[in-house]
């Protein structure tokens, strides 16, 4: 098969506007993985908010943000490129064209007599603009650099100090955040070339020296100016504008100097050279993999467009840094650095961006996620001991970028007594209560803090009424899923150094946490059960909750396999094997204590927990169909009882939704992935289309009224999570579901060999072509036309045995290796490959 015309293919996902966006959230997204912004317009200006993945106003040690949604991060400053002083507006409906090229990752906005083209340079943290003024009477163009808040803000023990200054011919905005040992700074620097400019600020000294430098007290007498301008000489023609940023956690590093150095380097190269280098990177990016879809009704193309756009967003928001973007906002928040759900990472949301990355072959996009969780390893090891009296590591569902903070010894001791149910909740000490009062309620540790309101000048909390149970306090699946992604990376790359140095410590740490957790015990039935947990923010105080059990059923076989590969911890394998061999099964509806019971003549289904549970919840769990390799189509033969239970759960939910899986669609739902994994093509199509169309937004969006009742913006993004929480979660869910519908690479169970399947859940009325990566380093390319599969091509980047289900059932298969041809029979094909070799499979007619 010939390669596609990548430019034509990728450009099908471009954004084209012939109007202004009425909300900044609908702007054009640009980013280089560390630094990003939406680009939008006012009637007179092109506007940005510079965001970074490594700007955090506070960390887990904070005692200053105990009210929800008040901690902040990521944003560095506002930038306006203002084309009009006195005169006609330049950006109006009917006279504006906006375009975002996916293939080149370049945004352009054409107004009446003005034009701006921009991109986020890939090799340093610089936005590059080429600006053209072709008006009959060109005006002064003012580039305004604006603070996010007043110059000096003090919140309890936290301070946020912003300063504007001039550095040569550049204007600079610097932020510094401090609380206790936490320090973080950011800087935005702006400069131009090709035109004269003057920097101006309207304070006493014109911005040339600090105002009020004599002061000893912050806030009182602070600078009143929060904006600086770069005033560009009027003139026809083009000039180049550069916006650089940097951040630092070390007070000895000068973020402004770092940003200025990047700007000077970019300015020396010039826009044209930067653009050429930038396009080369992005054009190569698109050759790694692709999915092409067609259908008579255009629905397949609609799904393809969102898939391509998903890859663009991930490369723009997660690359080259040491932290992933926030799940709500990414690098694209346009309304400052306050947002619903705060600045912490929520794994249940964050993972939705990353599940589809590895099959795309863009492994580099995973590294910010890995670096963040590896970076908090020691903090998580301390948390396991302090909070739970366990060993290994504890990664909370909701935590800070650097992990949970170390607790005072007396607080940690009482926390263990309370959270392990050795001390009644009602007897918690005044010291513990007061310490908890100061902590952020979104953080998993303190998530039992519930409704809050101000009474007589004091913020007053109620708890949820379930003792120490919060929505996420006793959730334990997150850490296993984090470890799973580390393991998957090894499965795709076979990088043994990665397995030894990065993945194995995570997997081992999570397994040891469960093995030593006091909430886990071996009962009279000879099986290990887990008590007092929750699952997916419900089933409080459940026994053997499905998420916790799923976590253990993954992590121990993966650990045993990794230990064997590396030759590590041989003396512990017997203990791990004993634990796994005696681990209680996942909860089913035929258990007498199940939160949902099926009739004796009905097949058993997966349920949320064994009860009773404090919140009285009752329901099934389809998550088993996608979590950590517990179930795949391969499981049907390896563990038929487990597979039958999953299919029965699918049928139970299908009946509940009246046969219309679109009713199950939500922004965060992984149902498309589950249905594709089970080979359910038509249900997959129903749910993925409803998910991308945001069919159930009014029912399931957070703060739907508060965000203006918008289902999605012109740029295909939503504010599902709330104000300033730009989200692409549904795009990640649709992407991994689509990949699984076209090409699966899954084992029969955790730690077992993966088997490739092509087109296991492709809708009957879709024609499809794809090139996707599979475990073992195999790149699989195939197509289906009119229901027929003419070939499967396999490139072996690493060598080894390729296991693939016969795409033509039991037919004999022709295997072509260059000029050599052979045949192979059977349902499961096992083909020995050499590194760098290519194989073509065809059906023997």
Count of β-strands: 36
Average pLDDT figure? 97
Please tell me what the overall shape is: globular
- Subunit organisation of the chains: single chain
As a percent range, the share of helical residues equals 25-40%
Keywords, separated by commas or semicolons:
single chain; 845 residues; alpha+beta; 7-stranded antiparallel beta sheet; globular
Helices, strands, pairings?
Layout: H1 6-11, E1 15-17, E2 28-31, E3 35-41, E4 45-56, E5 73-82, E6 97-101, E7 106-110, E8 114-120, E9 126-133, E10 141-146, E11 152-155, E12 158-167, E13 170-179, E14 182-193, E15 197-200, E16 227-232, E17 237-248, H2 255-269, H3 271-285, E18 290-294, H4 299-317, E19 345-346, H5 347-354, H6 357-360, H7 367-375, H8 377-388, E20 398-399, H9 409-419, H10 430-437, E21 449-455, E22 458-463, H11 477-493, H12 496-516, E23 520-522, E24 528-530, E25 533-535, E26 538-542, H13 546-566, H14 570-581, H15 635-638, H16 640-656, H17 671-677, H18 681-692, H19 697-700, H20 729-742, E27 743-747, E28 754-758, E29 767-774, E30 778-784, E31 792-796, E32 800-805, E33 813-817, E34 820-824, E35 828-833, E36 837-843
Antiparallel strand pairs: 1-6, 2-3, 3-4, 4-5, 5-10, 6-7, 7-8, 8-9, 9-17, 10-16, 11-12, 12-13, 13-14, 14-17, 15-16, 18-29, 19-20, 21-22, 23-24, 25-26, 27-28, 29-30, 30-31, 31-36, 32-35, 33-34, 33-36
Helix pairs in contact: 4-20, 5-20, 11-12, 11-13, 12-13, 13-14, 17-18, 17-20, 18-20
